[in-house]
Amino acid sequence: MTRASFGATLARHGLEPLRREPITTLQLNVTLRCNLACHHCHVESGPKRGEAMSSDVVDRICELLEGSPSVRTLDLTGGAPEMHPQFRQLVAWARGRGLEVIDRCNLTILLERGYDDLPEFFAQHGVTVIASLPCYTKENVESQRGRDVFDRSIEALRWLNRLGYGRPGSDLQLDLVFNPLDASLPPPQAELEAEYKRELSDSFGIEFHRLFTLTNMPIKRFWDMLLRRGEHAEYLSLLVNHFNPAVISQLMCRSLVSVGYDGKLYDCDFNQALELPLGGRKPRTLWDVAALAELEDESIATASHCFGCTAGAGSSCGGALA
Hints:
This protein is α/β, with parallel strands linked by helices. It is about 30% helix and about 10% strand.
């Protein structure tokens, strides 16, 4: 199957190739280890993956952040980022320097032995928790994420609520993430957020601040599933046909740099999953740049999966763009 050209689509709409603006977010994929193995996972993490950032990589990240005043957010992802041995140390260091720290949490990790002190740790350090909950019904969640995941997720959310997370007016930010279970675009984010809030409150007494809708990227496990079902061409056509030029200025790759567990640099987490180097050029690592500001105004590597971030209302790590 011939994939559509993202660069040609930009040009057809009179848009310039993507370039990076001042970097405000550094996103770290600290480990591919995870206590779950979800069907949609674009980095193919799981319990058998052992890749994780070394202490040298963590130290170099801290060095670069010390000299990068434009960076305001440290975004920790995985795998289950909490499973990295230096997770707490890195969080405390970043919060001590006034950075917002985002933990992209699968919720169930908070109930695992050795990690069940994390909710209190998060509250103590004011960590922003962005938690994946692809639906508010048990059947749909467990079809994507496995048996018992829904009940454990609900228990973890109640725990976070008891600590003040997600409560109206609370500074302890708790956001949820939705992604479709099938080969479709997410519904309107505001409408789905209202639905989530009603259902989770009525059924479980759970509160949260915002819901982010994410489009499934046509890569890795999700792409393999589409191939098995014979839906790959139809899904890519759906993304291409719903290309929205209005979201281009808000794409997360314009103000973000993604760092792999091995210290390699990427334009986004999806490019990292595909091992598409920064700017599509020769691979570079944290040690190849003296300061993150050097990466400003560089070209951003794109490919057909970028239609996932630009379809419909757009998609980013912070939800819909339009």
